[in-house]
Write a structure and sequence with these properties.
It is found in: Cytoplasm. This protein is an alpha/beta fold and 146 residues long. The chain is built from 6 helices and 5 strands. Strands 3-2-1-4-5 form a 5-stranded parallel β-sheet, sandwiched between helices. The two termini are 22 Å apart.
Length: 146
């Protein structure tokens, strides 16, 4: 059914279930699996202009975090079951939701798998949700895993 699945991961423990689900779907469908992490510079903008070295440190730390998140997905993909080739991508210069949706389009994925951290309704209304924004922007089905 699915030929190319895109997994959005931030490396958190909450994302592990979404990662396992994406891996199982890829194995079951014989699909390609691409894991993506977005390095979002926008939370730091404004502060970085006053201290460019601070911005560089923020981006370096974000890339380190992205590498760890993608390594965790690879670790789970190698953890038993049929062999699975996992491709990884780091998207830069985009908000998390836009980067995920754009990567899915660029990679021609036919499904996005993303975790839901289960934040309460009030926090979701105030802060918004990457998952909610991906649902709004994606042009292909999105599977939200709690």
């Amino acid at each position: 059914m699915f030929k190319h699945i895109l997994l959005a991961t931030d490396g958190s423990a909450a994302c592990d279930q979404a990662t396992r689900t994406a891996i199982e779907l890829a194995r079951t469908n014989g699909a390609r699996l691409t894991a993506v992490n977005v390095v979002d510079p926008y939370p730091y903008l404004g502060i970085g202009q006053a201290n460019p070295l601070g911005f560089q440190a923020y981006i370096a730390a974000a890339h380190t975090h992205a590498g760890k998140a993608l390594a965790r997905a690879a670790e789970l993909a190698d953890d038993g079951g049929a062999p699975l080739m996992l491709e990884t991508r780091i998207v830069e210069e985009a908000t998390a939701a836009h980067g995920i949706a754009q990567c899915a389009r660029d990679e021609k994925a036919d499904l996005i798998v993303i975790g839901s951290h289960g934040h309460g309704a009030l926090r979701k209304l105030v802060l918004g949700s990457v998952t909610t924004r991906v649902l709004a922007e994606a042009t292909m089905p999105v599977l939200v895993v709690r």
